[in-house]
Amino acid sequence: MIFSDYSAGGLHDECGISMHAIDGLGVGASWGRVAPGGRSDPQQHDETETFVVVRGSGQLVINNRRQPLKPGIIAQAEPFETHVVENLGDEDLVFVTFYWRDAGRASAQAATIERGRLAQRPVFVFSTPPTPNGDLHLGHLSGPYLGADVFVRFQRLNGVEAWHLTGSDDYQSYVVECARRENRTPAETAALYSAEIAATLRLMDISLDQFTVTSTDPAYREGLQDYFSRIVASGGVTPREGQALFDQRTGDYLYEVNVTGGCPTCGQHTSGNICEECGEPNFCHDLIEPASRLSDLAPRIGTTTRYSVPLHKFRSDLARHHHLGRVPARLRELAERLFERERLDVPVTHPAAWGVTPAETDTPGLRTK
Fold first, then answer.
1. Mapping DSSP to helix (H, G, I), strand (E, B) and coil, where does residue 255 land?
2. Deepest in the core among 117, 156, 209, 308, taking most CB within 10 A?
3. Going by DSSP bridges, is the β-strand pair 162-168/210-213 parallel, antiparallel, or unpaired?
4. CA distance 44 to 326
5. Which fold is adopted by the domain 122-216?
6. What CATH number belongs to 8-117?
7. CA angle 128-227-15, nearest 5°?
8. Cβ–Cβ < 8 Å for 60, 85
9. Full-model pTM
10. Which region among 38-42, 60-64, 248-252, 286-290 has the lowest average model confidence (pLDDT)?
């Protein structure tokens, strides 16, 4: 049995008002409070949301239609309907909100509504940046790039200003491995296959408004360094010593392409740092029976210092963001699995020769991408 009592002391700022999550009900649920004269931020998401008013008075504005609110009223916003809760009285408006995903309901609703308050905003479509260690294969063309192109064309046919953006993910370790095999430098390899990828997209009549080659675009390097410095200055990313994996013969730090093993979560064969089967990160030293690409000796576990983001500290922030309906259901499910862990320190730099060097000089030899 689950009990939840309204307590003003447990509220925090969210969506322009005060909210407090109710856990364990099987659907998303929260207490909400709107101060006299206040209003929530406009919300538009793919969840169905039901409001139950327990105190105060006001109105629920759904797609510019106004419905009065008072104790005992139940009101529901369908998926993608823009809704705002306003307090028109002289005491707090207190309500409980329940929200859940219904794929069929959301699909049907999406086909019948206009973009509402978003009608004047442009749509930016970002295709996953391809790694330039070879040309695109059929899976790429039949998946993200063709799908994004169809979506952009559909938006433009409906009068929406739409932009299709992507680029090449040059600073992947897979580019370094390809360069080693083909006796080129990483920069030469990235330039060669970035050009081939762009040409292939043109041959498929997949029109791009921007294609950024990250290793040659000076704005990318400068922008990444500036962004990295800002998150370091915020305290959200800090140098942290932790376990890492090293080749026993060469002593090289192992990550991504240079190490394989069993995923510590699902057990499937994977490379270092992320499992393409379950989507969960690994930290290389936790791989099942890891094997180095650099020698036939079993890797050894050691320590190194990397900039890391303590993702577990942002659990509530991500939960609030996900409540806005801005992420796919699979990504939300992945986040829920990850946050079952007590700690989740994710490295965002690695000791490497290929990548963008942070402006910070306290930990030399690190690269980000």
1. coil
2. 308
3. parallel
4. 9
5. Rossmann fold (3.40.50)
6. 2.60.120.10
7. 80
8. yes
9. 0.73
10. 60-64
